[in-house]
Design a protein that fits this description.
alpha/beta; 7 helices
Length: 210
């Protein structure tokens, strides 16, 4: 069941409209408004280790950003328990992505920016460190030589039903469905999507998942 659920999420967020809603609604960062979502492309790669393939998957987007490009690395996490070493695992995935990118772009002088996004859908409250600094002993202090890394955590269970109903888009309806609400409330949200949503294909993708 977990693998099916996991694959369904990857299919959902492979839809550009749903991915755009995820970023514009739930990632409060100023550079998001500068991204060209109409020309966003998924990268046919995965950097999840074999040990975790049953409980997580990754999705990578390449997006135009002015004359340059930016990558968004989405790690979809379905473990029932919270892994306290997530920051280290995410850092490993990101560095593996960059090593692969450098191999394919031998003439490049710098690597493109990459935004590490953890999408967590488990029942437990997320309590793991979001930075490497929290996982490394603070003494002796290494100053500028300490490893600096932070991922962006998006936990579906941290939003109230009232918040999700107020947002009322495909992603918020997905999160609302995961909270197992009253079926009438969920049906009302689906009706709102069909009445107001322009991308019927994206809405159908959500209904097929449901």
């Amino acid at each position: 069941m977990t693998t099916i659920h996991d694959s369904g999420y990857k299919i959902l967020f492979s839809n550009r409209t749903i991915f755009r809603q995820l970023m514009e609604t739930f990632v409060d960062q100023p550079w998001v408004a500068q991204l060209d979502f109409d020309h966003a492309e998924t990268v046919d790669k995965s950097f999840v280790s074999e040990h975790y393939k049953a409980t997580e998957s990754d999705l990578i987007y390449r997006l135009p950003w002015g004359e340059d490009e930016l990558y968004v690395y989405v790690l979809i996490e379905f473990q029932s328990t919270v892994d306290r070493w997530m920051a280290l695992r995410m850092l490993n995935y990101v560095t593996n992505f960059y090593m692969d990118w450098v191999k394919a772009h031998a003439e490049a002088r710098k690597v493109p920016p990459l935004f590490p996004l953890l999408l967590y859908n488990g029942d437990a409250r997320w309590s793991a460190a979001q930075t490497m600094a929290e996982l490394v002993e603070s003494e002796p202090s290494l100053g500028d030589y300490a490893i600096g890394f932070r991922y962006f955590k998006l936990a579906a269970n941290e939003f109230s039903r009232q918040q999700l109903v107020g947002i009322s888009n495909i992603v918020s309806t997905l999160f609302l469905a995961e909270s197992k609400p009253d079926m009438n409330l969920l049906l009302d949200q689906f009706l709102v999507l069909f009445e107001e949503g322009e991308d019927k294909e994206a809405i159908s993708t959500l209904l097929n998942w449901f």
